[in-house]
Amino acid sequence: MRLKNQQHSKWKPIIKQFEAVLGKNGVVQRKEELITYECDGLTSYRQRPAVVVLPRTTEQVAEVVKICDRNLIPFIARGSGTGLSGGALPIEDCVLIVTAMMRQILKIDLENQQVVVQPGVINNWVTQTVSGAGFYYAPDPSSQIICSIGGNVAENSGGVHCLKYGVTTNHVLGLKLVLPDGTVTEVGGQVPEMPGYDLTGVFVGSEGTLGIATEITLKILKTAESICVLLADFTSVEAAGAAVSDIISAGIIPAGMEMMDNLSINAVEDVVATGCYPRDAEAILLVEIDGLAVEVAANKQRIADICKQNGARSITTANDPETRLKLWKGRKAAFAAAGHLSPDYYVQDGVIPRTQLPFVLQEIENLSKQYGYRIANVFHAGDGNLHPLILYNNSIPGALEKVEELGGEILKLCVKVGGSISGEHGIGADKRCYMPDMFTETDLETMQYIRQAFNPQGLANPGKIFPTPRTCGEAARSEAAKKFESLERF
Amino acid sequence: MRLKNQQHSKWKPIIKQFEAVLGKNGVVQRKEELITYECDGLTSYRQRPAVVVLPRTTEQVAEVVKICDRNLIPFIARGSGTGLSGGALPIEDCVLIVTAMMRQILKIDLENQQVVVQPGVINNWVTQTVSGAGFYYAPDPSSQIICSIGGNVAENSGGVHCLKYGVTTNHVLGLKLVLPDGTVTEVGGQVPEMPGYDLTGVFVGSEGTLGIATEITLKILKTAESICVLLADFTSVEAAGAAVSDIISAGIIPAGMEMMDNLSINAVEDVVATGCYPRDAEAILLVEIDGLAVEVAANKQRIADICKQNGARSITTANDPETRLKLWKGRKAAFAAAGHLSPDYYVQDGVIPRTQLPFVLQEIENLSKQYGYRIANVFHAGDGNLHPLILYNNSIPGALEKVEELGGEILKLCVKVGGSISGEHGIGADKRCYMPDMFTETDLETMQYIRQAFNPQGLANPGKIFPTPRTCGEAARSEAAKKFESLERF
């Protein structure tokens, strides 16, 4: 009881200030309501925030951040909470700024092919809003029916259609930002290239450590005249990998090119029963081709030929939206299906140079055997972005630790072959310890320059991305926490 | 004589240190040799540097920068000196670090479609090196046979082929950097998306204010199966502009789409006599289409139809390399040809949303009449990147000032319609006074965060990009200059 009262007394004046800005409905502080916000999509780590706020406007976000800044309270932004690297994982005594009430599409400018949205807008809504006029928003994470554009910006999200069109950073033209001291600023603009430093580029993928985006200008693309999905099935993963290499080497850039292995194929067939994925295939390739009808027809033929040359047993193609959706259905459900294979699964996200695919897949199989955990492979093959799903049972003591170690080995393997420890899920809380495997101390310190410049008090999403409280940003955070405690606890 | 000796005594110990790193041949200090380095492509401003150094390796650049840092001497990097915004304009008492000796192609990795080059490598060499294997480097500034990749990185250069494939920043995967204190660091890597802040993106276009790139990893593209250039001529600039809009609205993204007006057409026909550009046309469009043969054929037809619907008098197309080159020849020579129309010309570089083309071109014509200077328009129509060439005679007193004022009015017009004051030439020394027209004080201060973080002493290319010595970076520079003077002048 004493502890509870202490907690209460410490936050009371702060909550009063939040309520003055947001109203009572805009502040969540009851323990049972706070449980929802204990973790994001990385469910293996949990921490209840002290308080959750639900702003609706840029001004409200700025006021909330100013209160945090004045009182040295760390704050963490959260979109839909679907992130897989724990980027929105709370820390003790933090304020969670949730953008779920910021769901307005503010401007639709079809002539200049752009829309302006609030950060809470769901990814899929953008395409839904403009598809009638023949446009779409390209980045499409598997979670696109629930994840928010703000979260996509924070994590620089990808998706199956990012091979040809690029990840989120390639589709953000400008941002209205609330900086960690509550200042409102704008970066980028309506035209793609702007003078001065590319702050839009720095902010996208900064995982909430540089401030909060409150208005986002997105580029939308014209829907292609023709779209075709091609499914090829192979009797070995290596053959499928070789087909991927040959397609790219032939100068073809499909809209997307995905691979799934036998374990994933059977998992999705068990769960969503597409009926299209041969259960005995060692690997399938799903290739989406878009463009003019003549171009799609020609590329379809070329891709089919390359797949056959690499030993594909069968080729299925789909031209109409319904059949295309059916072919994609299994891939989109792959993560969810993994949940049916095993009580728990851990998704890893690494990138390798495409040419290393066969070697790395073999090594992953070796690691799987060595550690004794099954690994299902689902990935963006075209850009070498792997998503090994490690299947385990969290109720077995020590399993999570072993699985994390195995995940770490996979990441180190990616780095060893010249790749990266994250393709589209971000570093967050989950992978910061692997940053030194990829970057030298100098490289990391150079990144910290940016963090310190934007976030000198270290209050914006502390403890994310960077491995250790190496420099003053993080040190300041501990100072901030100490000061806050001493201020409120007497 | 006294002054000269003072100058000499001040620099003597510094030059000795440079010579110890670079040898006597690596240091230029004779007045008559320094004249070459007084300006870059923006010839209306000149300032002789105190000394020029010619490093060959990353280590030598780092040593030179360390000497500058220890002695508080400002330094400015220079590539081929073709920049049009004065980004490599020296200041008094500075060291100019010229990359002309850093011209090695360090690595060619065709499998992963990338090359690693030193900054002095000429833009065109990259394509020449890989074209035999069926690849090319996309960004192609008009100066591509002489400009350096390092300069392209500094200014985030564009070119006629950047409509479809993007400007320099879209083609740089990674950088080895010498930071302003002489630390060597690496940003980006071999795969396109890397975790942490996008420092590669921040560095590209930072105009030498954050350090010096000494190794650059570039993405190369597969040469398209088929390329076609289409020339359409129009009896009004508005009709050509409407055709541009309609082509993009139809969902076609040509590799490049350029427009030239009557004055430019006649200038290039006078000088290079292509014989292909109708002298009585009010505007011509040059459209390059690439892709599969069937795709190019289909798009050629669609573009020709759209041009005709917008009143094009004639359509010429070229499929073979020789004829394509002939059609491009005039466009590539446009800036040089302007020099034959008038003793001097001033190239402006602004961006507008494409939909504003007809309005802005009309307004530029009005400004031309109002100020009494002829303006030739040559531009990347597809991405709304204007290059008005203002023709004048610099020997008439006050002419340059009027022309700069007129150029400024054009930039303000670009900003008014939602555009930008630079598309591909950078801000440099020339346009920093227009930054407040485009950005608020907060926006500029946010950019300065980055500069101060990387460049706290303010020694790397001081006085560029930002309008005033607003914050401590620049203030530090004045301090540095003062200290340096007081140190050496007693």
Description of the structure:
Two copies of one chain form a homodimer. Chain A is 39% helix and 19% strand. Chain A contains 17 helices and 19 strands. In chain A, the strands form four sheets. In chain A, strands 12, 13, 14, 15, 16, 17, 18 and 19 form an eight-stranded antiparallel sheet that branches. Chain A has a five-stranded antiparallel sheet with strand order 5-6-10-8-9. A four-stranded mixed sheet of chain A has the order 1-2-4-3. Chain A is globular and about 70 Å long. Chain A starts with a helix and ends with a helix. At the A-B interface, β9, α7, α10 and α16 of A face β9, α7, α10 and α16 of B. Chains A, B: Keywords: FAD, Flavoprotein, Oxidoreductase.
Q: Tags for this entry?
A:
homodimer; 490 residues; alpha+beta; Uridine Diphospho-n-acetylenolpyruvylglucosamine Reductase, domain 3; Alpha-Beta Plaits; eight-stranded antiparallel β-sheet; five-stranded antiparallel β-sheet; 17 helices; 19% strand; disordered C terminus
Biggest interface goes to: A-B, 79 and 80 residues
- Uncertain runs of chain A: 469-490
Oligomer: homodimer
Class by helix and strand content of chain A? alpha+beta
**What's the count of strands of chain A?**
19
What is the straight-line distance between the termini of chain A?
17 Å
- Strand content bin of chain A: 15-25%
Rg estimate of chain A, integer Å: 23 Å
- Rounded average pLDDT of chain A: 91
At the first level of CATH, the class of one domain in chain A is Alpha Beta
Roughly what percent helix of chain A?
25-40%
CATH hierarchy: architecture of one domain in chain A: 2-Layer Sandwich
Number of helices of chain A: 17
What is the fold named in CATH at topology level of one domain in chain A? Uridine Diphospho-n-acetylenolpyruvylglucosamine Reductase, domain 3
What is the global morphology of chain A? Answer: globular
Q: How would you sum up the major sheet of chain A?
A: 8 strands, antiparallel
Keywords (chains A, B): FAD, Flavoprotein, Oxidoreductase
Organism (chains A, B): Chroogloeocystis siderophila 5.2 s.c.1
Cofactor (chains A, B): FAD
InterPro entries (chains A, B): FAD-bd_oxidored_4_C, FAD-bd_PCMH, FAD-bd_PCMH-like_sf, FAD-bd_PCMH_sub2, FAD-linked_Oxase-like_C, FAD-linked_OxidoTrans_Type4, GlcD, Oxid_FAD_bind_N
